[in-house]
Amino acid sequence: MFDDKRLLAALAAASEDQIVFDLQGIGERHASLKRELPGVAVRFAMKACPVDAVVEFLARQGAGFDAASPGEIATALGAGAPPGSVHYGNTVKSDQHILDAFRLGVRDFATDSVEDVRAIATHAPGARVFCRLATTGNGALWGLSGKSGCSGPEAVRVAETARAMGLRFSGLSVHVGSQQMTTEAWTGAFDSLAEVLIALKQKGILLDHVNLGGGLPALGYLDEQGRPLIPPLDRIFETIRAGMGRLRQAAGARLAFVIEPGRYLVADHGAIRAHVARLSDRELLDGRRRRWLYLSCGKFNGLYEMDRIQYRLEFPAHRDGEYGPAIVAGPSCDSDDAAGHGRYPARVPLGVASGDPVWILSSGAYTTSYTTLGFNGFSPLPYTVAPAGDTDGRKRPTRVFTTVTATPF
Ligand SMILES: Cc1ncc(COP(=O)(O)O)c(C=O)c1O
């Protein structure tokens, strides 16, 4: 299923550890999303990959941005995004951050509480706010329930407060949970949206848009036990199209839609060239032997999500030869730095030597944002961007890649 030839060519060309992004692959995902959901405005959730080259590229493709802080807003604007295409999608905001965002030209703010609405009315007078409805997060690998979002009745109170304080209450949003694997979660989200939309309409509060949030899945992950995670993507899109139709009907007026994909756009078009630190075979306290494969890159070098998924690994120097089970772990001396909490082994070549390259596929989402600044002295990975517009993955000269060393911020 992993067939990004440009990315594989970039990995093959890399002689040092780095994360590589294939802009053309990201562009193709963006284009296919626009085809699947015609007329829906795509705003990339920057937290999934706050890499300048990726943000600039998506801005050139006409994407807007879901930013979670003034820092992300500044990055989006610096990449050429018009302020009107950027919204402040984080329901958690200090007074100062609301003010900073407003000064940067942002006029659309996510909210989920009366307290936040009051602060927006004070520091971003006249802004537009949309309220995030809580979801259960069921069916997702990362549920995102609890910290953000409110009930339907609370959303109505939030809307009334916004209106009373001179804000424009413009919409509703949801997030079905990241790497959402089911259609049922989307159906449930549309049920809640329809209910609240109707309750607001009865109070004379009309929405101009619904924000469908993130949650669209990556296609190239393995679950924590190493089985392919195959999301029902076509059915998810069908469910979203049907849900939008329902909401348009319930609104009885023009209703725009926004979607905030993060993982879906970048996960499968970023990959890491790492190397083997050591393959060890140790007897443990229970008297049984266990193999551990320590890589140069782990949880603290961006693979934070390795406690819920296994990444597909390729060992280009060991395509043939004997494979066997080993727990995959990162290079730090922290015991949490292991795939699946050290419970589930992957199949690895038994002939690997320290220094052998390993490719960690579908690792383009959240990796740069979860990277520590030097846990145990391991520096952040530099990143490399394969530029778009070159469709020949076979004979690309390595010099066309741009390598940028991550700088502490
Ligand atoms: C408000 C918001 N929108 C979109 C996203 C992106 O989610 P995903 O990567 O699952 O598409 C997130 C992720 O946390 C989020 O918080």
UniProtKB/TrEMBL annotation:
Its EC number is 4.1.1.17. Belongs to the Orn/Lys/Arg decarboxylase class-II family. Pathway: Amine and polyamine biosynthesis; putrescine biosynthesis via L-ornithine pathway; putrescine from L-ornithine: step 1/1. It holds the Pfam family Orn_Arg_deC_N. InterPro entries: Ala_racemase/Decarboxylase_C (IPR009006), De-COase2_N (IPR022644), De-COase2_pyr-phos_BS (IPR022653), Orn/DAP/Arg_de-COase (IPR000183), Orn_de-COase (IPR002433), PLP-binding_barrel (IPR029066). Residues 25-267 form the Orn/DAP/Arg decarboxylase 2 N-terminal domain. GO terms for molecular function: ornithine decarboxylase activity. Gene3D superfamilies: Alanine racemase, Lyase, Ornithine Decarboxylase, Chain A, domain 1. This is ornithine decarboxylase. CDD domains: PLPDE_III_ODC (cd00622). It catalyses: L-ornithine + H(+) = putrescine + CO2. It comes from the Bacteria. Its cofactor is pyridoxal 5'-phosphate. Keywords: Decarboxylase, Lyase, Pyridoxal phosphate.
